[in-house]
Specification:
The protein is built from 9 helices and 9 strands. It is of the alpha/beta class. The strands form 2 sheets. It has a 6-stranded mixed sheet with strand order 3-2-1-4-5-6. A 3-stranded antiparallel sheet has the order 7-8-9, sandwiched between helices. Strand 5, helix 4 and strand 6 form a beta-alpha-beta unit. The longest helix is centred in the C-terminal third of the chain and has 17 residues. It starts with 5 loop residues before the first strand and ends with a helix.
Amino acid sequence: MPSTPTALTIAGSDSGGGAGIQADLKAFEASGVFGMSVVTALTAQNTHEVAAVHAVPPAFVTAQIDAVASDLPVGAVKTGMLMSPEVVEAVAEAVARWGLAPVVVDPVMVSKSGDALLEPDAVATVVRRLLPLADLVTPNAHEAARIAGIEVRTLDDARRAADRILAMGPRAVLVKGGHLDGEADAVDLLVTAAGETLFREERIDTPNTHGTGCTYASAIAAQLARGHALEEAVRRARRYLQQAIRHAPDLGSGHGPTSHFWFLDGSEAVGTAGEG
């Protein structure tokens, strides 16, 4: 492990700053990890919608990964919005070729505003090419249902979906159950070949949850890069995310972003700006 922990995000850019590459890098840095990035798509989005998407050519995605991996240590990888089967293939090929690990796959399919972020025919490519490379895959209930091919409404449904996804090749599955029926708390289910672990947190009633999936997966990747075992990495990332949601800055009039640096008030940075 390098003296400075590092992590690489491979994801789309969010012009609103709350999700995607922007959220990933903030979560890395907030977790004490130096962040690097590979951009797979540019989005024109805010707290209400994804107004437009400009896909990055797969060859250029490969070029970015090669440029980083050939020079910088990669302590962990987090993948997010990959958009197309061709980009999924390019990412999987480069990750395997460079032997990058551990890999956290956030199977981003739909934005908070309901806009598609993964082409329908790309789901099968994610399952076939990317999940077998994953040390952890972090679907929400909707994504778990889509990948597993079953309805996911309850905790028992999440267990069945996680077992099906685990059989597809990843070392672990974390089903994010923020809105499971019959659960007063926000419940996340971590499943490995060794068994399951439940993480329960108070459900915070707020619209400011834009980018929480990106932030959660990135925080886990950061903790893995710091050398923590998977269960502890998830626990630390979950605590961090809970506070990020609790201290959300209430920006925009739709699904606002969280506060990635909730533990800073900015006074020290402002007071020392330009010194030295």
